[in-house]
Specification:
single chain; binds adenosine monophosphate; alpha/beta; seven-stranded parallel beta sheet; 7 helices; globular; Rossmann fold; 7 strands
Length: 182
Amino acid sequence: MASICVFCGARPGLDPAYEGAATALGTWLAQAGHQLVYGAGDVGLMGHVARACQEAGGDTFGVIPTHLLEMEVGKTDLSRFVVTETMHERKKVMFTNSNAIVVLPGGAGSLDEFFEVLTWRQLGLHAKPLYLLNIQDYWGPLLALVDHVIAQGFANHSLREMITVCADLEELKACLTEDLAD
Ligand code: AMP
């Protein structure tokens, strides 16, 4: 069993495909016997991943800071529910308890989380796989920005190789299964 950290929007986004992907990911994590590690909210895509995982009998580990308990509707019925004092602590607990990181569509919070894990990897602080679930090419503009950063000499080409882009859940399942077997 692996622990998979999922970063995603605290809102559902406009395209129903985002919600569909979040639900399908939650269900698959449970079926594959992986633990879901996430921000413990019951809102937006976060809520969809967690509820789907729970409904399929999966193991869920949520981490939320005190000040977001109300705003993000802390989901207290998870297998493990941890409350931290700060956002930084939340991210640290999520990261250290995960074997791999998956990023679904999301907003500034998801971007912050994605770039933190990416920059830590760039600095050689870890080697955990990092996947962008690129539903409806939501992350296309982000990938263009990363390419631009590299083209303008602010990062090595290796930065792009640290991001595994998966067009859909089927691709993600294949990549995760292969990487976790290594
Ligand atoms: P968002 O993608 O903006 O909907 O946020 C997704 C998750 O990231 C939510 O649980 C937010 O609380 C969290 N988040 C927002 N801003 C930050 C931040 N600066 N650092 C860490 N997590 C954040």
